[in-house]
Amino acid sequence: MPVFEYTALDRRGKKVSGVMDAESLAGVRARLRNNGIYPVTLKEVAAVVADTTAQSRFLHRLVGKRIKPVEVSLVTRQLATLLGAGFPLVQALDALIPQTPSAGLQKKLTQIKDAVVGGSSFADALGQAGDTFPPIYVNMVRSGEASGTLEIVLERLADVTEKQQAVRARIRNAMTYPILMLVIGAAVLIFLLTYIVPTISGIFTEVKQVLPLPTRLLLGFSHWMRVYWWILPIGLAGLFQILRTIRRSAAGRLTTDRMILNTPLIGSLVQRLNVARVMRTFGSLLENGVPMLAALEIVRNIAGNTIVTEALTLATQDVGQGKSLSRALGSTPRAFPPLAIQMVDVGEQSGKLEPMLGKIADMYDREVESAISALTALLEPIMILFMGTAVAFVVLAVCLPIFEMNQLIR
Q1: Does an H or E element contain 41, and which?
Q2: Cα–Cα distance between 221 and 227 in angstroms, integer?
Q3: Domain ranges of the chain
Q4: What's the pTM?
Q5: Residue 357: pLDDT over 80
Q6: Which value, to the nearest 10 degrees, does the dihedral of the CA atoms of residues 203, 206, 208, 211 take?
Q7: Dihedral sign (CA 161, 163, 169, 171)
Q8: What is the predicted pLDDT for the residue at 277?
Q9: The CATH number of the domain covering residues in 69-160
Q10: Alpha carbon of residue 397 to chain centroid
């Protein structure tokens, strides 16, 4: 059934907008008027999607109009609440669509509802909605439909998504101040080199004497910044493109991921992030009745690091051959820390593997937050020292010729 996007006026003259499925434009107008809403513009969503080019999709994402994970998490929790209250799935989706603030998510939910009405399962309808709902989401919903616990599965999905978003938000907040300091410091240096130093350099050119080495270096770099500044952004863009090309190849991605894990401080942090994400997702899948081999296949796609992905691939093969999960994961210690392996072993022996996986994820999430806090606390004095040294060099390079001229006058 076609999906239409509308802009209309309600009985009070207030402007409203949304999406609606109907057989035709006339059907949309009739349904809106029956609800006391008077359409101003109507547009079929399918036509809009067909006309979308790669460039417009990029601009669409650039301005932040893509569907955010937090919006999906909110809709998931609302849907779980409605289903728990006894609403049928189609009626629950009907109630959610007009309340969803994101127009893009409204369209997706409308398409999903139409697919369900057409006879598709909820999981299959989610899988047809593109990359809005990742494979783990679809597989957990499928297991919930099969077991008759869809509302419980949706609650757990919302919990997992919210916890991951909370960790990411805390990491972003911790890194905000160092990044702000870096940007302000770089702006101050650029201002000194491109405006202040050239103004003062005119005084030195009139004095026919050999300038000190720091002054010559400063004037040379200032001249380079004013004349060849364009090399810097082009060089950074070229470096970014080279790294992007390397990451696209399997061998390049493997090499860079190995380098990241072997980097002091950063490697340990990335490893903990990957372990927390994998363990939390793996535990949620097992709790919702997904078989262990299928759950390992799913979490392998969300690992975020090639080394961890390969470790999970080997672990899937080993578990399929009868090995325990702890032994299978322990064969690649660089991907999973010994403590995590030991906790998995305890969970298997006690018969409480799923709760143990959640505890592992919580533990490493806390360690990540502590590591980020320690790293930012270390970065701040380093950046202050670096900026102070750079400014001191500029001041010294400017003052040295002045001191020498005073000596000549005396």
Answers
A1: strand 38-44
A2: 10
A3: 3-62, 69-160, 165-410
A4: 0.63
A5: yes
A6: 20
A7: negative
A8: 81
A9: 1.20.81.30
A10: 44
